[in-house]
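Work Package 3 (structural annotation) set out to generate three-dimensional models for the target panel prioritized at the project kickoff. During this period the team completed the workflow that converts sequence records into discrete structure tokens, so that structures can be stored uniformly alongside our sequence database. As a representative example, we reproduce one entry of 544 residues exactly as it appears in the project archive.
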Amino acid sequence: MMQIETLIVGAGLGGLRALHGLREAGIDAKVLEASDEIGGVWNHNRYPGARCDVESYDYSYSFSQELEQEWRWTERYPTQPEILRYINHVADRFDLRRDVVLNARVTEAVYDEAAAHWAVTTQDGQKWQARFLMLCLGQLSAPKLPDYPGQSAFKGQVIVSANWPKGGVDYAGKRVAIIGTGSSGMQMTPIIAPEAAHLTVFQRTANYSVPAANAPLTEDEDREVKANYAERRALMRNSPTGLGFRPEKIATLDVPEAEREKAFEKAYQRLGFGFALTYPDILLNAEANKVASAFLHRKIGERIKDPKTREKLIPRTHHFGTRRPSVDSGYFETFNRDNVTLADVKEFPILEFTETGIRTAEAHHEFDIIIFATGFDALTGSLLKPTIMGRDGTLLKDKWAQGPLTQLGVATADFPNLLIVAGPGSPSVLSNVMVSIEEQVDWFVALFAGMKSRREVEVEATEQAEQDWTAHVQERALETLYMTADSFYNGGEVAGKPRVFMPYSGGIRSYRRLLETCAAEGYSGFVLRKTPAAAHNAGAQQDA
């Protein structure tokens, strides 16, 4: 049995940042990582074209000015290999690897109420004890796989985008299928098409995408950013999404059409995902969104030659931004190629897999390679994979059966000393997650350090606080258009998953102020104890 003060689960961007922050505060910590390498989702998502939709300078840690100045990003939007190199550089630069245990998949975590610590078991049978358990498992890290009839019959190669082979894949002369048109499907399509003999993209729902406007970063750009990094970070922290810019304060429909068109064009050519912030009400007002969506419909249409294909690729079933839009580099133009076909599975559903391909209601398609780019069981999927048992034998999966319940997105009642980084109830996927990670980790570090100095052994969210916060998250979501579409934001893309809005839509700045207020009020919504609650309960029973 190995003992440690804090056990962190996951060696991605969140887990490594937590390890560094805790270590700097003099708090002992170890990281358990299921994989044989660090990096989290950026270790597994090695598919061709994998790229972040946040600008590289902003998708980075802010805790070290030296790190900011020494690391040289090469492109505006970083690719998966570059992000993974950055993560490994940070791990080496700050000697983080010595406290990371690889090939240590957590299968069970049980809270010992009498001792006020977590007993954690890994897949290979290792046992750990820790006062605090921090879950840094990622929001998009539990792949969602379909189960078509006859799926195991296919004799060709089957690949999941979220677990891409490290050795790469040879598409030359191959007939390739991509199932899914979310970010991963959109990013890999333009890369695979030129190499494959033929590529068929199976689309369930047409998706919005804005050009990435990616480009190499020049030396002048690098110098300018590094000379003004502090100001850039301040803008990020005080913007709604952590992307470093704010929308105009005027409503969409209050702007003359010609002026609005110019603003949309400028945002389309430069802002990527930030197009949604051209005006403040695009995600709040259906009529404003309709105008923005119509602009995007025109821009998408201009990129596609064939009228029938064009009509299928223009998203008309949901408001722009209510499903996660992508940023792409030539996705729509790829369908102008002679060797690329769009298969509409709403019109012609997939009936079954065969030995040689896929049979739809329209035809039988033969393939050598089938790629599942079918997304993730977002936000809760990775958290509910291990068996996590809190007070009185309560299982997290049972407590969250109707949707996640949290106080400020960081903790849940009946699970003392369990903290969650960038999980449900926090800005997470609606933000530049690097900003969200750092703000939460710094808050956790201050909490733990204060508890240590006051000799407190337990921190637990109250039931009332988690009920109030969960209701507030839903209330903020209903102020927007998010619940008008099925998406991974609200569980609508996983059969049987509770349909509740999971991330906090109130913005980075508002959320940070709530964290600060909570701490200033002595951690309102939480109970901090110097002896375990189990001891109080036992004493109360004896008195009775």
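The first strand starts at residue 2 and ends at 9.
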